[in-house]
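HOLO CASE FILE
Compound: pyridoxal-5'-phosphate
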Amino acid sequence: MLSGGEAARRTWEDGHLMGTHDPATTTRTAELLARRRAVVPRGVGIFAGEIAMASARGATLVDVDGREWLDLAGGIGVMTAGHSEPTVVAAIQKQAAELQHTCIHVATYEPYVALCEKLTSLLPHGEATKAMLVNSGAEGIENAVKIARQATRRPAILCYEGAFHGRTLLGMTLTAKSSYKTNCGPFAPEVYRLPFPNSYRLARGLGLDDFAARMLDDVRRRFVTGPIPAGHVAAILIEAIQGEGGFVPAPPAYLRGLREICDEHGIKLICDEVQSGFCRTGRWASYDHAGIVPDLSVWAKAMGGGLPIGAVVGRADVMDAAEPGTLGGTYGGNPVACAGSLATIAAMEAGRLNARATDLGARMRARLERIAARCDAVGDVRGLGAMMAMELSEGRNPDRPAREVAAAAVARCREQGVLVLTAGPEGNVIRLLPPLVITDGDLDRGLDVIERAVVEAAGAHAGA
Ligand code: PLP
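Model generated. C-alpha cells follow.
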C-alpha cells in the first residue's frame, strides 16, 4: 500500500486507477469513524458518506486506508487552487515561524494589511474600497449586516428562498432550508424572505428577461403590500448564483434591476460570494457576470485555500459607517491565515484559474447536457463557469424533485472513488466543485463515473 503522501502525488494520468472502493478494505476508515461517533456530536452532520481522509494533492485525495479519490467537491468549494499547493504550504510555514498571532485590535501586522490591499484591488466597490477580515463565511455575513445597518440606520434585511448563509444564529435566520435550523430558534428579528428568481422552477415558459422583470415587479410590490416598506430595509442579501440552493444563477437582468431598486430606495446591496467567489465561475466575483457592483460583498472558502479566513469588502464610505469596536474579533485575519490566503490568490493568478474555470465549465456543461439527453431524470443543467450542476426531477418535471436518484447516484460515484456532493433544498441537485487544477483527463474520468452512476440510478429508480 502506498503511504498517503506518495499516493496523493500520483494522478490518474500516471495510470494509477482507483478501482472499486471495497468496504472490506476500510478498516482504518471504520475505526476513525467509530472514534468520531464516540466524541463528536451527531449535529456535526456527515453529508458525503463514511469517508476518512489522510492526505491530498491537487485534485486527488487519499483516505486513511490508502485508497485514492477524485475530488469533485473541493471541501465544499474551498480547494479551488488545489490541495496542498506547494507555494501555499511554504507561505503558511514561513509565516507560522515568524508571527502566529497578535490580534489586529492589539497590533497592526503586514499580512492583514497586504491581504486587504489585494482584496480591494481585485474587487473594487466604487471609487474607494475597504476590506475587513473574518474567520468564516457566516462571520462575514454577520459583519456585512452590521455594517449595512449602521450605514442606513435601518433594521430590516431581505434575503431569499433557497439561500444559505451559514450556521451562526443570524446566518441560520437568513438561511432558507429548514433542516439546517431544526429547533435552533428563536431566530433573529427583522429578516424577510423573497422568492429567488429560479427560472427552472418559476419561469413557466417566460423568456429570461421577462421572467426577471416579473420577479423585480414582485420585489417592488412587496414594498407596498407588505411585509416591509422600502424605507425600513437596510440591505438586500443575495447569492448571484445560489450555492447550497442548487447552483441556481439569478438572471443577469434581475441582478441589474435589483441594483436599481437598491439605489432608488437607499438600500445596501450585499452579495454573498462565499461559494461562488475566487475563480469558481471564471471571474473573481460571480456578480461580475451581470455587470453589477454591490455595496458590500462577503468572501470565504476558496480565498483561504483551506485556512479559516473570510472577508467583507465594500464601498469605503459604507464600510466606514461602522463605529470602532463594532467589527472584528480575536482571530479574524490571523497572520498565518492571511499568508495562506495571499499565496492562494497568487497561485490563482499564476495558474490563470479564471480562464481555466471557464474551460472546465464548458467541458462539464457539454457532458452534463449529454447525460441529460440520455436520461430524462435530468431536468436542468445549469451553472456559471466551473460551478456546474444538474437537477434531477422525475420526467424532467420541476415540481417532482428526484432526491433518491441524486442520493443513489452520488453513492455509486463514491463506490468508484469519485467524491461528489448534492445540493438544493430537496437534495436533488448534483453539483461539481473540483479544484481548478484538475487535469482534463481526470475530469473526464470523473464525468464518466457520474454519467454511468446517474443513468444507472435513474434506471433502477424507474424500475423499482
Ligand atoms: N454563504 C454561502 C453562500 C455559503 O455557501 C456558505 C457555506 O457553505 C456560507 C455563507 C457559510 O460559510 P461558513 O461555512 O464558512 O460559515
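CASE NOTES: The first strand starts at residue 53 and ends at 57. The chain has two domains: 4-71+352-463, 87-350.
CLOSED: yes
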